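User: hey, got a sec? need Asparagine--tRNA ligase folded
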Amino acid sequence: MPDHIRIQEVLQMEPPRPSLTIKGWVRTFRNDQFIAVNDGSCHENLQVVIDPAQFDATTLKRITTGAAIMARGELVASIGRGQKVELKASQIEILGDCDPETYPLQPKKHSLEFLREHAHLRMRTQTFGAVFRIRHSLAYAIHHFFHQRGFIYLHTPIITASDAEGAGELFQVTTLDLQHVPLNERGEVDYSQDFFGRKANLTVSGQLEGELGALAFSRIYTFGPTFRAENSNTTRHLAEFWMIEPEMAFYDLNDNMDLAEEFIKYIIRFVLEQHPADLQWLAARLKEEESKKPQQERFEMELLEKLHFVVENPFERITYTDAFEILKNSPHNKKKKFQFPVEQWGMDLQSEHERYLVEKYFKKPVIITDYPKEIKAFYMRQNDDGRTVRAMDILFPGIGEIVGGSQREERYDRLLQRMQELHISPQELYWYLDSRRFGGCPHSGFGLGFERMVQFVTGMNNIRDVIPFPRTPKNIAF
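Assistant: Yep! Here you go:
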């Protein structure tokens, strides 16, 4: 067992405690007497108090912001403001020096852009400490939610030969010598000489393989990294991100929506209960950031108010057709305030349209169902009208789409026909078609972009700030 106690535990203890040892990093050192120490276990620092007369000048000089230290002494009630307890240290040991002349994270306010430029160190700051502790708890809550409900956690492949979305935005995986690529008699790349003997890529989704699991175990979920080679330099896109994708046999679209809403509310409620201090810090940060924006661009609700509003209110449910009519007839559209005018039924809704529905019209999360089949994937169940599919997207304020899902097409003939219409090879996806041929049944599923959920819960405006090591176009540091 470690020979020290984590600061989170120390702050919950009742003084006095005669002999405690803590280890962590110096946040500040004031008056050669008060050391604020943090070990990442919680938002709060522990104040360590020393008598400078008991320590030599060399040791005191080495207690700098960022230095790793060990402190041993008595835990006592604090007589100062801002903390209930403090450690009255009799022994200090410097475990790792930090040069104050070159250390980028000095005890002052740093912009998020500055911290992105020093991303290898930003987890040491209070803001990113809060973000990544919340990210951890969201991940834990996800596993807990599905485990409680009898779901099997299925590990779907990261390297695959299929393009689940049919979008073609793939990262290719190869062991071929790119300086001397082998060609076949038609002058094309000879993938028979590649590692897998055929073209391979990083997965864009575990859904298709997840469906195979659902048709064996009834309920499964995947939670893993996915990859999109989309050249988007926006605050909402990453090339590598994490997805949660449950698939459920014998679920129709309504069952699917019910589960998704219950799931989202559960994980947000979990963080509200587990991370009050981190959320308070992030709420204050966001409030200050919002105060610098023009009034019309500010969110109407503060962070904590917004989170409570989501968990305490039912999501609005409307069809694509109803959403289209609302948008088409909106003052925003008539005054040409949308970058993409809403004119033709069948258009793909943009983020600005989704946010208008959520933030201006309904003022709560919205689930849109029954999209035009031409803008949705081949595997979605077709409605009897021949124009729409049993799809559903969940829209959140500040983000737009956060969940996409559908009832899957379980009818072999209809699925095969749709694949042929979209020129998707039945031979390549024979295994997917087999799941319909042999004991197929109605089933549904959805995908939640994990980073977008972390964004929503933490109030961070840039998706690059909610993943430890962001992968974006022309950026692959670390």
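Quick note: The longest helix spans residues 126-148. Let me know if you need anything else on Asparagine--tRNA ligase.
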